[in-house]
Specification:
The chain has 248 residues and is mainly α. The protein has 13 helices and no strands.
C-alpha cells in the first residue's frame, strides 16, 4: 500500500482535525498504532507541524467522512499520476547533516572488516557515494590520516539487522561464485543474535597482558633448601675480638 508524503506530519494533522481511530491513521501513514497514540498524547512528534492531506491532494474530504463513520474502513490514498514510479527510484539513503561527518569512519570500518561488500552495498547502507568509498579503499581520501574506523551501527547510520542482511547476502554471493572464505571472514558473518548467544571466549586480563607464555615450574625440596639461606648466614656478624684488633 502506498504511503502519503510527510507521513508523520500527516498523522499529526489527522489526529488534530479528524475523529479517525488510531488504527486507521496508523495504517494510512505507515506508523505503529502506539506511535499515533503517542502523537495524540503529545509524547511523539513534538513540534511537528501538521500536513494537510486534503490541500496537498492525498485525501478527499469524502474519504475522511466515510472512514469516520466506519472505524473498520481503511483510508485510501488519492491517486496521483505524478507519484507513479517514485517508490522504484533508487539511490543513496538520506543521511542527516549532523551525521554526515561520521560517514568516512563508517566506510573505513566496513572496508576493513567486511571487504566482501561491494561499493554499491556500502553506498546504500550508509548513504554515501562510490567515489568516496573508492578513495577510502585506496587511502587517497584527503583526511585519511585522521579517520578512525567506527561501526556504522554505533554511529546510527544503519540498523544492525540491515548490516547483517547485507553481509549475509555478500557471503551467499561469494559461495555461489565458488570463492573460499577464510576462518576469519567466516567469523565476521555471524549474526548479532548468534554472536550474543554464543559462549564467551576466555580472555587474558589486561593487567597481565604479555605474560601469556609465562609458566610456573615446580622445584624439588632440595633445590628450595639450597636457595634459601639459613639463620647463620643472616646473622653472621663479626666477633668482638676482631673489632678490638682493628682498634689496636
Amino acid at each position: 500500500m502506498n504511503k502519503p508524503i510527510m507521513a508523520k506530519a500527516t498523522a499529526v494533522w489527522l489526529v488534530d482535525n479528524t475523529t479517525l481511530s488510531f488504527k486507521q491513521i496508523a495504517e494510512f501513514c505507515g506508523l505503529h498504532e502506539l506511535e499515533v497514540q503517542g502523537i495524540a498524547d503529545g509524547d511523539v512528534a513534538t513540534g511537528v507541524k501538521g500536513f494537510d492531506p486534503i490541500t496537498n491532494n492525498q485525501l478527499t474530504q469524502d474519504e475522511i467522512d466515510t472512514a469516520e463513520k466506519d472505524p473498520s474502513r481503511s483510508l485510501k490514498l488519492k491517486f496521483n499520476p505524478a507519484a507513479v514510479g517514485e517508490e522504484k527510484r533508487r539511490g543513496p539513503r538520506y543521511t542527516p547533516l549532523s551525521k554526515r561527518q561520521d560517514r568516512p569512519a563508517s566506510i573505513l570500518w566496513l572496508v576493513k572488516f567486511h571487504p566482501e561488500l561491494t561499493d554499491g552495498q556500502i553506498s546504500k547502507l550508509v548513504g554515501t557515494t562510490k567515489p568516496t568509498i573508492q578513495s577510502i579503499r585506496e587511502r587517497t581520501h584527503w583526511n585519511i590520516g585522521n579517520i578512525q574506523p567506527i561501526d556504522p551501527v554505533a554511529l546510527g547510520l544503519c540498523k544492525q539487522s540491515e548490516l547483517d542482511a547485507v553481509v549475509q547476502k555478500a557471503a551467499s554471493k561469494r559461495v555461489k561464485d565458488g570463492e573460499v572464505m577464510t576462518d576469519e571472514e567466516r567469523r565476521k558473518l555471524v549474526s548479532t543474535e548468534q554472536s550474543l548467544g554464543g559462549d564467551t571466549e576466555p580472555r587474558i586480563p589486561t593487567a597481565i597482558s604479555g605474560l601469556e607464555t609465562f609458566t610456573l615450574t615446580q622445584h624439588d625440596d632440595d633445590d628450595v633448601d639450597r636457595r634459601v639461606p639459613d639463620k647463620d648466614t643472616f646473622f653472621n656478624l663479626p666477633d668482638a675480638s676482631d673489632d678490638d684488633d682493628e682498634e689496636e
